[in-house]
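**User:** I keep going back and forth on a fold encoding question. It is easy to fool oneself when nobody else works the same problem. Could you pick a protein and write out its sequence and tokenised fold? Could you put it straight underneath, so I can go through it closely?

**Assistant:**
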Amino acid sequence: MVFYEPEHRDRDLLPHDPFKAFVAPRPIGWVSTVGPDGEVNLAPYSYFNAVSDKPPTVMFSSDGPKDSATYAQACEEFVWNMVTFDLREAMNQTSAALPRGESEFEHAGLEMAASRLVKPPRVAASPVAFECRVIERVQLAHNIVTFGQVVGVHVDERHIVDGRFDTAGVRPIARCGYRGDYATVTELFEMIRP
């Protein structure tokens, strides 16, 4: 068993930091926001997750003051959009470093859909979207963690089977580490708590 302190890992054995590969899979935070002048931003975040269900709360962590974190702070709202296998290429296109104010929606050929309770639009093709209001922002070293309470949920009813959301049928993708490693949810198994 190898042991190392994160800043002193054996770079011959582990030339690439495996931290992201160890904490996997992680849902992708495909976050849409609106800037102070009405500019729309859409970006995928590797560090995203649900943190509570009462009230339903999600978070995303930005490596510095990127547009999503700054816009979410300014308008106190954001939308999370589920990324599926069918949307993988468009999601990847939205990670491009575009000039501020240039639309990632247009760049990736994505249609916007209006939200009901918040200003940022959602990805029309995404089967699930959460409208969120920012409830807290935490600075961690150079990362900015934005917490949002889910105030509205959009779900495509075609993916509701016998009263349950068909996660495996939708095939959401998740981040698994390194530069471009992803996984797809294609099957589920059930274990009931004792």
Observations:
- The chain has five helices and 14 strands.
- The domain at 19-184 is CATH 2.30.110.10 (Pnp Oxidase; Chain A).
- Helices lie at 19-22, 67-75, 88-93, 104-108, 167-170.
